[in-house]
Amino acid sequence: MPEEKKNLQEAPANRISIYSKIPFLIAIAVVICAVFTTGIAYSILSVVGSRAQYVEGELVDGVREFNISSLQWDYDPAALKVEPGDTVRFIVTSDDIMHGFAINELGINLALKPDVGVSQEMVIPEDMPSGVYTMYCSIFCGIGHPYMKGAMLVGEPGFEVSKILPYIATAIMAGMFTAFIIIGRRKAK
Ligand code: CUA
């Protein structure tokens, strides 16, 4: 009978020993948290493209001209600013391999061969709503292809949710991390 009691007491003692490694678990959780948060923040920022200063192009005979180079996996410049009613000319080249250059709302989709400039002139519709539009690579070009994006700002920027989204993502991750630690501690008791 005393032996049986001893066995019952030893079982929880073994379980507690896992949680004595809490500093190690915290270190792992922090690394995972950092990787996820950076990934989420980066993909949100590249989708909506608020990371760069907007470039207004160069006026050439009344046409707003943008010289854009593309490379794995970005555009240079990656953020353009236009006004409704502007006549614009996109001159796009690829510095390395095949890329695309597309803006859905303007119906533009160019295929870019290495070192060959492609020029497209168009008018930004007068009634195009102000806001940030995504320009993106439309030809598969490797592992970074889904993130090869830029932004075209039409008119004046309003409140950009994109600027606070990464912070919300970070707060959610930090909250989850704290919750896991608290749950872990409670189970240990
Ligand atoms: Cu560049 Cu896909």
Bound molecules: dinuclear copper ion
* Fourth CATH level, the homologous superfamily of the largest domain: Cupredoxins -  blue copper proteins
How is the quaternary structure best described? single chain
Classify the fold: give the CATH topology of the largest domain: Immunoglobulin-like
How confident overall, as mean pLDDT? 83
Which structural category do the helix and sheet elements fall into? alpha+beta
CATH uppermost class of the largest domain? Mainly Beta
| Shape label | elongated
Name the helix and strand elements from N-terminus to C-terminus, one letter apiece.
HHEEEEEEEEEEH
Please provide a written account of the structure:
There is one protein chain. By secondary structure, the chain is of the alpha+beta class. The protein has 2 domains: 2-46 and 165-188, no CATH class; 52-159, Cupredoxins -  blue copper proteins (Immunoglobulin-like). It is 37% helix and 29% strand. It has 3 helices and 10 strands, in the order H-H-E-E-E-E-E-E-E-E-E-E-H. The protein has helices spanning 2-19, 22-48, 165-188, and strands at 58-60, 63-71, 74-76, 79-82, 87-94, 99-103, 108-112, 118-123, 131-136, 149-154. The strands form 3 sheets. Strands 1, 2, 3, 5 and 8 form a 5-stranded mixed sheet that branches. Strand 1 (58-60) and strand 2 form a beta hairpin. The longest helix is centred in the first third of the chain and has 27 residues, at 22-48. The model has no long low-confidence stretch (mean pLDDT 83). The protein binds dinuclear copper ion. Dinuclear copper ion binds next to loops.
